[in-house]
Design brief:
Chain lengths: 114, 114
Amino acid sequence: DAGVTQSPTHLIKTRGQQVTLRCSPKSGHDTVSWYQQALGQGPQFIFQYYEEEERQRGNFPDRFSGHQFPNYSSELNVNALLLGDSALYLCASSPGAGGSETQYFGPGTRLLVL
Amino acid sequence: GENVEQHPSTLSVQEGDSAVIKCTYSDSASNYFPWYKQELGKGPQLIIDIRSNVGEKKDQRIAVTLNKTAKHFSLHITETQPEDSAVYFCAASIRGGGADGLTFGKGTHLIIQP
């Protein structure tokens, strides 16, 4: 049973560019959450997708946007990259809409903005 | 919004001894408290979680306690082993699990000395 997968594993961009990160949830999971983890910090919640809609959003600017596809996979897009966007981006999936299920994390995509 | 404080930031213990990591949270509406272990280059892995209707939960060498009145919860690891060395994060959420973004602490780097 494959866990949460993310691509690419590493990415280097320059300021002002745009980036798209991808996530495939664990089999049987329909909810995807995205987190940003700066070096030496805990993950920070960006947003959550369920039924192809953004269900909840953390304190991140509109430069951060996302999408969920009918097969439950998801993309995170970041526009107008800043140096401060350099971080590990984590995707987590969970099953069902009941709200009582555990979030399982992928290995992350490490983004470096130069 | 929710704020989670975690202490200590670094904890060094002798192999075989116990380790305790403490967290406090600010939002009394929070009712789900997971603990994650993160090894170098990997995503966070859930090790144990507790919900607000339970005061303590145990899984082999790992236990979590929750004091809702004090808004405080702790992770206890007994008989520590070298493979327990990692960064540990506590988190909290209001609706619990998959239906809500998690708010994380800043992490504790646990070092097991041989």
